[in-house]
Amino acid sequence: xxxxxxxxxxxxxxxxxxxxxxxxxxxxxxxxxxxxxxxxxxxxxxxxxxxxxxxxxxxxxxxxxxxxxxxxxxxxxxxxxxxxxxxxxxxxxxxxxxxxxxxxxxxxxxxxxxxxxxxxxxxxxxxxxxxxxxxxxxxxxxxxxxxxxxxxxxxxxxxxxxxxxxxxxxxxxxxxxxxxxxxxxxxxxxxxxxxxxxxxxxxxxxxxxxxxxxxxxxxxxxxxxxxxxxxxxxxxxxxxxxxxxxxxxxxxxxxxxxxxxxxxxxxxxxxxxxxxxxxxxxxxxxxxxxxxxxxxxxxxxxxxxxxxxxxxxxxxxxxxxxxxxxxxxxxxxxxxxxxxxxxxxxxxxxxxxxxxxxxxxxxxxxxxxxxxxxxxxxxxxxxxxxxxxxxxxxxxxxxxxxxxxxxxxxxxxxxxxxxxxxxxxxxxxxxxxxxxxxxxxxxxxxxxxxxxxxxxxxxxxxxxxxxxxxxxxxxxxxxxxxxxxxxxxxxxxxxxxxxxxxxxxxxxxxxxxxxxxxxxxxxxxxxxxxxxxxxxxxxxxxxxxxxxxxxxxxxxxxx
Amino acid sequence: xxxxxxxxxxxxxxxxxxxxxxxxxxxxxxxxxxxxxxxxxxxxxxxxxxxxxxxxxxxxxxxxxxxxxxxxxxxxxxxxxxxxxxxxxxxxxxxxxxxxxxxxxxxxxxxxxxxxxxxxxxxxxxxxxxxxxxxxxxxxxxxxxxxxxxxxxxxxxxxxxxxxxxxxxxxxxxxxxxxxxxxxxxxxxxxxxxxxxxxxxxxxxxxxxxxxxxxxxxxxxxxxxxxxxxxxxxxxxxxxxxxxxxxxxxxxxxxxxxxxxxxxxxxxxxxxxxxxxxxxxxxxxxxxxxxxxxxxxxxxxxxxxxxxxxxxxxxxxxxxxxxxxxxxxxxxxxx
Lengths: 559, 335
Prior knowledge:
The complex is a heterodimer. Chain A has helices at about 35-40, 45-75, 85-120, 130-150, 165-170, 175-200, 215-245, 260-290, 300-310, 330-340, 340-355, 365-390, 390-395, 400-430, 435-465, 475-505.
């Protein structure tokens, strides 16, 4: 009955009727209690997810403003708009805030927190208090980093390479380092909680191969959180010790080795790319079948691919260091291993495309984001192989080509998946529908704005424009201006959802339990769910993605 | 420098290896198009063809080919591996210089490059080299990590403190190209650039014996002046330090604390840099300047004195000339 309203046409055209008196009941998780204390001391995974959502949105705004300052400075080649120091601080803040305070926690800490218990039919995560603690740890780390920004900023770049960061920078490096170190513990706690929850809290009948891909990718992400984060924590503590006490681990002036820091840094920071990418793949793997009304193609392959990516990613960190004084043999090995990443990535892309084939497609906002994601992720992934090619890397390493490449992965990938997921689960999270027309317009603005901003940077890099340049030769100006123009379109695309989504909280149409006719346990409960997620025991279907259009799983025929 | 159109999308390649790198990039781009265009077209086509409400055959084939699914994983992978091999081949060649290569030393420091030719001549930020001759550049750093980037040769390599790295190439096209620092190194990272001038052997020999030996260009001197920290105090950048301004100093009368009056000539300036505690100024404050004896090499000291000789003219001649804090330093080094 709740699906009656969704049978015909697109969401925009759907009748604005309220199908079920399930909403704004005083007992859903949003309304059951309303004191400040009930929010800030909550152990409900759904409320903690919202605490994270509010925090990371604030950090996204800070990071975006810093990006705007960077793009403003680069409109002119001679640095006439701001000093080199201001520019350097702007791109450092942009990187630090976006990587550690937006991208890494983005999907896992919000949607992962909100959805994993719902998707596996559990009442909460395994350790609800630890979950709350991880948010407080996150905010403590954020506080230190913000202190560094308020005092005057940092100019080391988000990579904190020694000995620039330990002996030469005169900026507020220590509080920023302390903040980033602390925030790592929040990742570790979240990863631990997810792993234990997925192992022990699945509802009866929810076997591993009935789990949604979203849960698989979060499981893989959690393993990276647990295995890689301690390495960066250690490396940052050593960096702090060197800056504060000259202990001499990385700075040759005290007998250290600066390349060692790069190894430790990328041993975490390359897997961290998959902390950002895998959850996004999970989101897309939920959206595409729902809007194609078709079972996900090659479910097992996609699940294995998530684990495969999480494993391979630990063996490729050296591709960041081909021209940094690493041995030639190491460079050859890391180059070869990096190409292997293409296999599981290609599995995902081809299987999403195959899922759309012969589907019953509805091109609503979440699906537009998902389709944009696939296109941008493919370009981002393949340009990663350019960078993994040794001879090409010698030319485009540390140029704008790299900047374009990782923004295609992190904005084109993670941010689009985040926004797609936000629109997909918004009715479930808030109990309200947003304005579909505005949703589509903003998706279009983001896709166009993103490409106009970042595609010219591939060309700039190939032409040889180094990254992190406050000033640049005049022949690069045209493409830089184009990129800055694109960033204003992108900014508009980001602003719209902040308005219409917030507006929908009060004025949006009330959401039915399952506005998209989607499969998965989270759609079986009310929107928003009750504090303990399900009113009765959830019924686990025999197969995941049990959509009307089915294609046989590989292995059942002709294998 | 050379006129480059605003929309050049093919940067000049000055060596055979650079050209081969371009071929790898071009080939990879064709492969990328081959792998992505079908996916993009398929997604677009499916979005139109199978949109809800459209009549379309949505029946799915009961058979599914394991072979097809394995092949769409492995064939693109195998195709990309061709480029791994090709790229590795060019890379390995670029790591193994021939024994007859001419050796040039490059030293990075915040924020300038210094290049030393085998015949002893040195230059700041700019590099003049012959074509048709294998050249090895041995690279090191005196402070943080830098990287020497020569886009026309499609090469870059980190400059690490206390370590030596190297690149080699054999250029085959004369001309003036850019050179950069490509590893972020602090405030004036983007000013740590210059020109790579590739010339014929004869021109290079001529340059070595004429221009190279007595190079005293203002930009090089200014880079030294910034890099050794003179500008920090003498241009008024450090709060609480009252260092005398040096613009227009050369040739003036200077009153010393012991009552003598001397002319600020080459010898006086040189002596003050090497031993600031001697010949204290009349009415001067606390002497805080460190001695640069043993810190600044003789050729750089010559450049610095040469720069101070012309400092007032520089200040008037180029109004954009500023302190690094104003972000306009590159005006002095780029033309």
